[in-house]
Amino acid sequence: MSMLCAISGTVPEHPTVSKKSGHVFERSLITKYVSETGKCPITGIELTEDDLLPVATNKTIKPRSSAATSIPGMLGTFHDEWDALMLEHHTLRQNLHTVRQELSHALYQHDAACRVIARLIRERDEARAALTTLREDMRAEMEAAAEARKRAGEEEEAAGGPAKRSKQEALGQDVIAVLDQTNAALSSGRRKRAVPEGTASVEQLGSYTLTGSFPLHKTTQPGITALALHPTQTNLLASCGADATVQLFDLAAQRQLPALTGHSKRVTAAVWGEDSLLLTASNDKTVRFWKHSAAGDAEEGAFGSWECAAVGEEHAGEVRGLALHPSRKYAVSVSDDASWAWWDLNNAACLKQCSGAAAAYTCTGFHPDGLLLVTGTADAKAQIWEMRQQKAVTGFEAGGGSPLSGVSFSENGYHVAAVAADGVSVWDLRKMKCIKELRPYDEPACRAVAFDASSQFLAVGGADLRVYAPKQDWALVKAFPDLPKKGLLSLAWGPKAGSILVGGGDHNLRKGLLSLAWGPKASSILVGGGDHNLRVFGPKESGDAEMQE
C-alpha cells in the first residue's frame, strides 16, 4: 500500500503526517500551507508545524509519479492546476466585489455627512443674518423711542412742567466701571477668605430659647413683610409692615424710633444705601428714598429724624422686591408689571427699566460680586442677568409651579437658594444643577430663605424658623418653634452673620442669641412673627444681659 500526499495526490518524497487529522502530506507543501493559513487543508482545524510528524521511508527506491509517466497523465495534472487557478481567480473577484461595496457605503456616508454639515452652516449663516437684522431693527426702534421721549421732555419743559430724567437704554460707562471695580475688589479674595474668628459652632446653636418679645407694628394689620439691618450701624433695624409703615428699631436700647409713613399700601422690601439712605418698596407701585437728618436728633446716634427725599413711580404694578448692589450705590426693584428697574441711590433716579418678562417678578437678589442679578417670577422660574450688558444669560425652574417668594446667594459665589411655598431648592451656578431640595414642612408653608455671610448656614422661614448647615450635607442644625401660628414672612442676616432677622405674619420682631457669630460675635437672632412683638431667642442669662444693656 502506497502513501499519497493529501494535497498533491502523489507519493511524497518527504512524507509528513498530521497528529490531529492523521493525513499524510508532502512536507514542503504542508509547511507552506500551514505558515500561510494556520489550518489543515483537508479538515480546516487549527494546525501548526509542531503538529506534523515526519514519516520514515525507505529511500533506496525512489517512487515515481504515475502522472509523470505518460502524456495523458501530464495533461491531467495541467488540467488540475488550471482548475485550481480558476478557483483562486473566482475567489479574488468575490473579494474585490465585497471591497467595492464597502467603499461605496463609506463614500455614501461621507457624502451624507458633507450635506448635513453644509445644511448646518447654511442655517447658522441665516440665523446670524436674522440676528443682525433684528439688532438693527431694535436699535432703530430704541433710537426712535429715545427721540420721542426726548421730544416729549422738551415739550413738557417748554410747557412749564417738571422735566423728568429719562432712563437710559443701557447703563452708562460710569456705572459699568463701578460694577467692574466692585467685582474685582470682592472676587479677588473670596477663595482665600477664612471664616471670621469667633464664629459659633453647630453645637452651640442648640441650647437657645425665647428670651424676649417686642411689639413693632399695628395689631389691626399684622405682618412683618421684610427686615433690613443697617450694614454699619448694626443696632439700627428697619421693619416693613403690612400696615404701610416702616418701623425703625434700636436694638441696643431696645426701643422704637419714629415710624416712616408715606406708603399707602403694604411695604414689601427695604435696603440700606450709603450715608444712612433707606430705600423702601410697596404695593402702592412706588419706591421711596428716605434720608436721615442728624440735625433733628435729640442726641447723637439716635436716628430720630427722617424724611422722604424722593418717590420713584416707574413701575405700573406692585413693587414686590428690592436688591442692593454690593457697592451700595445702586439698587434694583422688581414689580408685578414684569419689569425691573435700576436705581441710582445718590441721585434718586431710575437709570434703566427692563420689561417684557413672561410673568410678574416676585423677588430679586444680587450675586456677592455684583455682576449677576437673579430675579424670581410668579411662574416658578428664576433668571440670571449679566448686569454689564443687562441680559438674561441663563435660568432655572424651581418651586414646582408655585411663585418664588425669595432668593439668596451664598457668599461662596456659586450657590443660590430659591424658596417657594413647597420648599427650598439650592442650585450650583457652575453646573446649573439643583444640588439640594429642602422640604421642611408637610404643608406648603415656606416663605423666606437666606444664607449667612460665612456660607456656613442657611435659614429657612415658614411655619417656624429652621437653620441648616450646607457643609454638613445640609443637616438641620436647629428649629425654633416659639413663633405665632401665622408663621414667618421674611429673613435677613446681620453683618458677619452676627444675627438673623425674621419677620412674621404678625407685627412682631423676634430676636434670639446664637453663639454662632451670625452677627458681631454671634450676638443675636431677631425674629418677626405673627403678632406685633419682637422675640429674642438665646440663653436666658445672655438674653437678660442684653436687655439690661
Automatic annotation (TrEMBL):
Record pathway: Protein modification; protein ubiquitination
Keywords for this protein: DNA damage, DNA repair, Metal-binding, mRNA processing, mRNA splicing, Nucleus, Repeat, Spliceosome, Transferase, Ubl conjugation pathway, WD repeat, Zinc, Zinc-finger
InterPro entries, sorted: Prp19 (IPR038959), Prp19_cc (IPR013915), RING-Ubox_PRP19 (IPR055340), Ubox_domain (IPR003613), WD40/YVTN_repeat-like_dom_sf (IPR015943), WD40_repeat_CS (IPR019775), WD40_repeat_dom_sf (IPR036322), WD40_rpt (IPR001680)
Pfam families for this protein: Prp19, WD40, zf-Nse
Subunit structure: Homotetramer.
Protein role: Ubiquitin-protein ligase which is mainly involved pre-mRNA splicing and DNA repair. Required for pre-mRNA splicing as component of the spliceosome.
Name of this protein: Pre-mRNA-processing factor 19
Source organism of this protein record: Tetradesmus obliquus
